[in-house]
Write a structure and sequence with these properties.
The chain has about 190 residues and is an alpha+beta fold. It has a domain of about 110 residues: 2-Layer Sandwich (Beta-Lactamase), CATH 3.30.450. Helix content is about 40%, strand content about 20%. It has 8 helices and 5 strands, in the order ααββαααβββααα. A 5-stranded antiparallel beta sheet has the order 2-1-5-4-3. It is globular and about 40 Å long.
Length: about 190
């Protein structure tokens, strides 16, 4: 169970506590799993702040609803996830398209869990993007070693550079080169595994 920070015990904003926890929680190396018939669902606003989280998300992320709502979705970002994948995700969503991706998330207690995510923009009556919707299923376990290897290469490329901006640029370049070599976009790549 989530240990309350001193700020939360003092009655301070739980969302601020969630954001602080995300930067200080160390991965335990323990993996959580969920059932194949379970679905993780979250919705966010245009800035990626959580506006809805279902019970499965709350359980796996070790968060309460109060902690989740208003927190940036990046609060569950695992340090092993390459920034290039999130760059790709945001580029795709902001262009009005959906994306499928494998993601490893970090729960507030340090455990991690893998998901196969389907993220889509949500549109308002005028056709403009008003937020984002993400549904996550259990991943194909046989694909995780392949995805983990790709992500480790991207992460290593990011870490080779002193500047975060240069690291991201190099990692995105590596991802694009790998996809070009395979002759397919990321979505097709993950479905081909």
């Amino acid at each position: 169970m989530l240990q309350r920070t001193p700020a939360a015990r003092r009655g301070e904003n739980p969302r601020a506590s969630s954001r602080k926890l995300a930067r200080t929680v160390a991965p335990t190396g323990r993996e959580r799993t969920f059932l194949e018939d379970e679905l993780i669902v979250t919705k966010t606003d245009l800035k990626g702040r959580i506006t809805y989280a279902n019970d499965v998300f709350l359980r796996l992320s070790a968060m309460t609803e109060e902690e989740a709502l208003g927190a940036p979705h990046s609060v569950i970002r695992h340090p092993d996830m390459p920034r290039a994948i999130f760059w790709l995700l945001w580029e795709t969503l902001q262009s009005g398209k959906e994306i499928f991706a494998y993601v490893v998330n970090l729960a507030m207690d340090g455990d991690h869990y893998w998901v196969f995510a389907h993220v889509t923009p949500s549109f308002g009556p005028d056709g403009s993007i008003i937020g984002y919707h993400s549904s996550r299923r259990t991943p194909d376990r046989s694909v995780l070693p392949i995805i983990s290897g790709v992500y480790a290469d991207l992460k290593a490329e990011e870490n080779r550079h002193e500047s975060r901006a240069l690291g991201l640029e190099a990692s995105v370049g590596l991802l694009q080169a790998q996809l070009k070599e395979k002759g397919m976009p990321y979505d097709e790549f993950v479905f081909s595994l």
